[in-house]
Design brief:
Blueprint: E1 2-11, H1 19-36, E2 43-49, E3 52-61, E4 67-75, H2 88-96, E5 105-106, E6 117-124, H3 129-142, E7 163-170, E8 173-174, E9 178-179, E10 182-183, E11 187-189, E12 198-200, H4 207-213, H5 220-237, E13 241-242, H6 246-255, E14 260-265, H7 275-286, E15 289-293, E16 296-305, H8 312-337, H9 361-379, H10 383-392, H11 400-404, H12 411-419, H13 424-432, H14 447-466, H15 480-493, H16 500-508, H17 520-530, H18 532-538, H19 543-550, H20 557-571, H21 576-592, H22 610-631, H23 635-642, H24 646-655, H25 663-681
């Protein structure tokens, strides 16, 4: 037998940015608890709104299945005395098992290691589902990802927000259980203004309809889709297109039980302010959606009201009044900041600490300039542009605009640099220094921006690793993993052919406020190259392909990537597996025969078998193709050429005994194998494959 189960936890308004995750975790916790209890069910439907977390489990079993189990006790030979009466050992085992000693049996030989022991077969009666639900729900709530829980009133109960009611309805029956200090019932509450009274839910399948009658749309996904549709429609009415950010959509969905989209407007004079500042103000402070037309911001916004107003114009007017001072602030910051050149702000950076012990932001900027200049010299880039961009790159951090709208750092600098008439590449570098900001983000378009972005990340990595502030498995407060991947992407995708170790040396050679650890270069180089693992995993490249290159100890990121890509393509060839196995065999033979001391000079006059002669001749013929390919970094062409060796290598191992009784012949064959190994090792250790 099965019935539907409804669970609802009614609270004060839940954190909007966390609601979706809380709902998913709560639902998963309930599912896991039911499965662990051995209770089957059809499917699960989750609900999440500002004042409630809820879940409906359809066709849930009413009782656990009975379980048969066998218990084993002490050896039978010590369980009964000479008169056949049970000893203390048998009686104790029977009591612990809740049985009578007369029910005990002796396990036969078929029971393996338990043969000869006392045995009791028993049936454990399955519990009623209603007996288990309280603990299942409580455990699910205890496991929710809540960083800081709160208490309210005199209660010692803790949750993310105060809890006011609890529904646990199994079929038509209220479950006799208590969770978070609340006795389960079958009443919920509707919209705080439209239907604030209690609502009785008689059966789980009427949950959504009863709440909808009370102006609550309980399904998060349904509300989200409704809001998106309404916002898009309002945008079209305004003659443009509403921009719907997923994070903002989720947050607004979590703030409203009965969403109604309303469009308002603001003074067109505000459009003289960079549109990103206006958008940031509308989005972050007011949770408004903005509207674009032909790439330009329209003087409108779309807000989501949590009420079906009889006079929507009053709601719109109120929102217009609220947004006006916000936009006025942005305009004031914009006008005020432009009264002073961006360059004039640099002295203020002297008083802004970057990291304790690593100097001010001004110190960091000077180091970025020095490092970026060295890289520019190596690449033949414009040093003057690089130095100017470095001098300006952090100055907007002490502007009024960025102080108020922190997400505009870099972008504000770009606008101010443009206003000051700075070179185009310098202006672009103000925002490009932060690229890539996340996995998959775009890279800088300009060379100047690329070098500032590279130098900034290398400086952070050198300083923080140099003072022992290395990321752990769970903590990375300075986002150094992301910075490392950013460096690798810049080096690889911008084809910057400078050794990573050299770049770190240059970064460490700058003026630091404190002495950096002596092993910083080695530790940082190893750490950064290891970040390639995550990169290649995302690209679907097997770990052993990267390890085949990693074992060579190469520290040039661009070169590492070229080799990995070539080995990955090689690994797909039909001949790859056989050649990898052959390389492994060659490596083992050389290791067992002191290969390091073996000469790589081959004497063709010592060949005794046609197969070793054929291998030598084909290897010799390939060198004229492989050597130029390696010099150009064309590892794919080199490996493609080496793949043609498969047959002669197979023939060699099938027909030639390397360890000959003739010492000269043996050493000559070892030399031949050493040459073969070296040809592959010039690219990667494919034996790892």
């Amino acid at each position: 037998m099965s019935r539907d189960l409804l669970i609802e936890l009614g609270t004060e308004e839940l954190p909007p940015t966390a609601l979706k995750n809380l709902s998913a975790a709560f639902t998963q916790g309930i599912e896991d608890g039911l499965k662990e209890a051995g209770l089957s069910f059809a499917d699960v439907v989750s609900f999440a709104a500002p004042r409630r977390l809820a879940v409906r489990i359809n066709a849930l079993e009413e009782q656990q299945a009975d379980k048969e189990e066998t218990l084993y006790g002490p050896p039978a030979k010590i369980a009964f005395d000479a008169d056949g009466k049970p000893t203390k050992a048998a009686i104790g085992f029977a009591e612990r098992a809740g049985a009578d000693a007369a029910q005990l049996e002796t396990a036969p030989e078929s029971h393996g290691k338990n043969a000869g022991k006392l045995m009791l077969n028993r049936v454990i009666k399955g519990k009623q589902t209603t007996e288990l639900l309280g603990d299942i729900v409580q455990n699910s709530l205890d496991k929710l990802p809540i960083p800081k829980r709160m208490r309210w009133g005199a209660s010692r109960v803790e949750f993310v927000r105060p809890v006011h009611w609890l529904i646990m309805l199994f079929g038509n029956d209220v479950v006799d259980a208590e969770v978070l200090g609340l006795k389960a019932g079958n009443t919920t509450r509707g919209h705080r203004f439209h239907a604030p009274g209690e609502i009785t839910i008689s059966a789980p399948d009427e949950y959504e309809s009863k709440l909808r009658e009370a102006y609550v749309m309980a399904d998060f996904a349904e509300r989200s889709a409704l809001i998106k549709g309404q916002v898009e429609a309002e945008g079209k009415k305004l003659g443009g297109e509403a921009v719907i950010d997923d994070d903002l959509l989720n947050e607004v969905t979590a703030l409203n039980e009965w969403p109604v989209a309303l469009a308002g407007s603001f003074d067109e004079d505000f459009l003289r302010v960079p549109q990103e500042a206006l958008v940031s103000s509308m989005k972050e402070h007011q949770k408004y959606f903005h509207v674009m037309k032909d790439g330009k911001l329209l003087p409108n916004f779309i807000t989501i009201a949590n009420i079906e107003s009889k006079d929507p114009s009053q709601v719109i007017s109120g929102n217009e009044k609220v947004i006006r001072p916000r936009l006025a602030d942005a305009a004031f910051f914009w006008d005020t900041d432009r009264k002073h050149p961006l360059a004039s702000r640099f002295p203020k950076l002297e008083n802004v600490v970057w990291v304790n012990g690593l100097g001010s932001v001004a110190d960091k900027t000077r180091r970025i300039s020095a490092l970026a200049t060295k890289i520019a010299e190596q690449l033949g880039a414009d040093k003057v542009l690089v130095q100017r961009a470095a001098h300006l790159c952090k100055n907007d951090l002490v502007s009024n605009m960025v102080f108020e709208f922190t997400d505009l750092q870099g972008l504000a600098g770009k606008y101010y640099a443009e206003h000051d008439g700075e070179p185009e590449e310098v202006c672009a570098a103000m925002i490009e220094q932060y690229m890539p900001a996340f996995a998959g983000d775009a890279l800088p378009q300009t060379q100047t921006g690329t070098l500032i972005a590279l130098a900034d990340r290398l400086d952070s990595l050198a300083g923080l690793f140099g003072t022992g502030q290395i990321p752990t498995g769970s903590k990375d407060p300075f986002a150094l993993r992301r910075a490392s991947l950013g460096v690798l992407r810049l080096l690889v995708e911008k084809e910057i052919n400078i050794d990573l170790g050299t770049l770190i040396d240059w970064a460490l050679a700058n003026d630091w406020e404190t002495d950096l650890k002596s092993d910083t270069k080695a530790v940082l180089t190893e750490y950064m190259l290891d970040r390639f693992s995550a990169w290649y995993h995302d690209e679907g490249i097997p770990a052993e392909v990267f390890q085949a290159v990693r074992t060579l100890g190469i520290t040039n990121a661009l070169d590492v990537n070229r080799r990995v890509q070539a080995v990955h393509e090689f690994s797909k060839l039909e001949s790859a597996e056989a050649l990898a196995a052959a390389n492994k065999r060659v490596s083992n033979i050389l290791a067992k025969n002191n290969g390091d001391a073996v000469s790589a000079d081959v004497d063709a006059s010592l060949f005794e078998a046609a197969e070793e002669k054929a291998l030598f001749e084909q290897m010799t013929g390939l060198k004229d193709l492989i050597i130029p390919s390696l010099e150009k970094g064309n590892y794919s062409m080199a490996l493609e050429a080496l793949s043609t060796l498969r047959k002669v290598v197979d023939d060699f191992f099938d027909n030639v005994m390397v360890i000959s009784d003739n010492e000269a012949v043996k050493n000559n064959r070892l030399a031949l194998l050493k040459q073969l190994r070296a040809m592959f090792m010039g690219i990667a250790d494919i034996s790892v494959l």
